[in-house]
Amino acid sequence: MIWNKKEKTPEQLERERQLEIDRHINKTKNKNTDGAKTHGEILRDQITEALETYDKSTSSILLSSFTAGLEISFSFLLLCTFYFYLDGRVDQEEIFKSISLVYPLGFILVVLGQSILFTEQTALLTLPVLNKKRSFPSMMRLWGLVIAGNLLGGYFMSLVLVWLGPRLGIFEHFVVETIALHVTHGTIPVVFVSAVIAGWLMGLLSWLLASSRDTISRIVMIFLITSVLAFAGLHHSIIGSIEVFSGFLVSDQISFFDYLEFQSTALLGNAFGGAIFVALLKYRAFVFNIGN
């Protein structure tokens, strides 16, 4: 008698495929003599770190992301101070290019302080969803909490710095207006594509940081990536929110609608760049290397 072997369902095949992927990720070992991490090791560490974030309480996530919004505002403080100091001495275009020297400070404070910044976490938090360890709705919920905390922290610091700057004599409101108008001068498609590239770079930064635990190396990587954002004029949704919201507070040339239009476009672009061009491509590159 010949017994017909029962065919596996698509769900069973998918489950077996996922188990195979997890097995390859978990068995990854470093074979490099120079100590550099392999693709699989970075992916494993990124997923582990992301899962730890998913498991944090709502209060912890909100407080950490609020702190990130406060800390990244120090970049805005330096931008305004730097611009005010050079205004009238250096051509405006040269000032905006040289701002890239001070722009990274807030990012260094956030990343080394391990606060939760949306653009640095976008790709990271997408990986457990691709790896089927977390659901898409849970990722969207976490994104929402992080964005809310980042923006609230930025709003608070905008109010403080706009009030404090002129009183300390370190910058005037025209500087805030000039920076905000510079950030928002592009059309919606331009801002979106620019934000996609910025999100891509920030996602790559998270990936690169996972390959090194040396503090100096991490600072150099943060400085290089974020200074590129400033020098190229790419749009970052969190520091950009502070720049444009502050401009809205002091200038009648920037309406609240202008702020909402910019912010929604930059957020979508950053999210797309980090999730698609980093998380998905890095993850699929590893998966495609696993035999069917």
From TrEMBL:
In the bilayer, the protein is annotated as: Multi-pass membrane protein
Regions crossing the membrane: 61-85, 105-130, 142-166, 186-210, 222-242, 262-281
Please identify the protein, giving its name as recorded: Formate/nitrite transporter family protein
Query: Can you say where in the cell this protein is located?
Result: Membrane
Q: Which organism is it from?
A: Algoriphagus kandeliae
Q: Which Gene3D superfamilies match?
A: Glycerol uptake facilitator protein (1.20.1080.10)
Keyword hit for Transmembrane helix = yes
Primary location recorded for the protein, binned into one broad class:
membrane
Q: Which UniProt keywords apply?
A: Membrane, Transmembrane, Transmembrane helix
Instruction: Provide a Gene Ontology MF annotation, just one.
Output: formate transmembrane transporter activity
Q: Name one GO cellular component term.
A: plasma membrane
